[in-house]
Amino acid sequence: MKTSDFDYELPEELIAQDPLEKRDSSRLMVLDKKSGGVTHRHFYDVTEYLKPGDCLILNNTRVIPARLIGHRDPTGGAAELLLLKRLGENRWECLARPGKRLKEGATISFGDGLLKAVVKEVLEDGNRIVEFSYEGIFEEVLDALGEMPLPPYITHKLKDKNRYQTVYAKYDGSAAAPTAGLHFTPELLQKVRDMGVNIAEVTLHVGLGTFRPVSAEDISDHHMHSEYYEIKAEAADLINETKRRGGRIISVGTTSTRTVEACANKFLRQKNQSSKGGSDKIWVCPDSDNTDIFIYPGYEFKVVDGLITNFHLPQSTLLMLVSALSKREYILAAYEEAVRERYRFFSFGDAMLII
User: Fold this and answer.
1) For residue 340, with 0-12 CB atoms within 10 Å meaning exposed, 13-18 middle and 19 or more buried, which class applies?
2) Exposed, middle or buried by CB within 10 Å (0-12, 13-18, 19+), for 28?
3) Would you state the pLDDT for residue 277?
4) ω into residue 297 within 30 of 0, thus cis?
5) Class of 67-145 per CATH?
6) Average pLDDT across the chain, whole number
7) How does pLDDT run across 332-341, given as a tens digit for each residue?
8) 147: helix, coil or strand?
9) Could you tell me the pTM of the whole model?
10) Could you tell me where in the chain the CATH 3.40.1780.10 domains are found?
11) Is the pLDDT of residue 280 over 90?
12) pLDDT surpassing 60 at residue 275
């Protein structure tokens, strides 16, 4: 399939610049993945499409204030880092600007020297590995000096940085929010639990590689950047028990989807390689690893039955993933209807339930 097969026209004014006052008041397009039929609701209606015995998968990663703006020592020239992945206690892989100036050995100062970074290595893709020095606790220094790394299509300044976090965010590590989860409130999640729907939390620290444009003409030539994930025993047990009882696994967001599918694929490989085989009643196991899984049409889902997601950029890997769960033609037709109906798009926009 070609990258151009996942294109659509989006008026710029439909790109949501600010979150709604109430998280769950966004609109919800419900797509029947088998027929392509759509229904227009609001997000607080999502419980009408869930059943007792289903299981929601939430990504409990927390966005860190990963954008650091400082200056180069000793020249004073402007410099910026975007933290992507922690490699050690004080070492991070980063995007850096201006790239040509930040060569190996360059020093960058933030907050009048409260935090300093030395470029240790320039990677092939242009990213930098830097080592930080500071006094105190790194997370507290970062919280004081860093900014939320909003996507470039959001030009408004975020008034409340907690609105770029899910209400269930726990573990620091993401450079971008798992935005499908931004629609949930504590009250709505409690309503979901009260109706007998299980909630399993997984972790995938979202890197910007997920959002990088696909430059390859043939999508199978595109390579995803690796991201760290973790599934704990409690979540694995809930997922497996749900599948055994015939319940549906509904992932909240593409990152939750990639996490459980990556784990399931890894388990299947290990099972097939083992002379002892394994239980047919297990889909995922407790695991922590890095994944570069790329899901696009033709992929056979091992775990996920339904998906809550936002509306994604044209020609993006995220649009390709949602097209794999239904049909590309159904997804693109739904997007065209969303444009006609003036839905709000991208991170702070409206939601879609594919089920």
Assistant:
1) exposed
2) buried
3) 52
4) no
5) mainly beta
6) 95
7) 999 999 999 9
8) strand
9) 0.92
10) 3-63+160-354
11) no
12) no
CB-based burial, 66-100: b 16+ in 10 Å, e otherwise: bbbebbbbeeeeebbbbbbbbeeeebbbbbbeeee
Which position has the token pair 């607080």?
A: 44
The DSSP string of 279-308 is -TT-S--SEEEEE-----TT---SS--EEE
Side-chain half-sphere exposure of 302, counting CA atoms within 13 A: 20
Phi and psi (nearest 5°) for 245?
A: -90, 0
* Positions of CATH 2.40.10.240 in the chain: 67-145
CB 328 within 8 A of CB 3: no
According to CATH, the topology of domain 3-63+160-354 is QueA-like (3.40.1780)
Structure tokens belonging to residue 98: 């201006």
Nearest Cα neighbor of 151 from 52, 289, 16, 338 is 16
Q: What is the identity of the amino acid at 312?
A: H
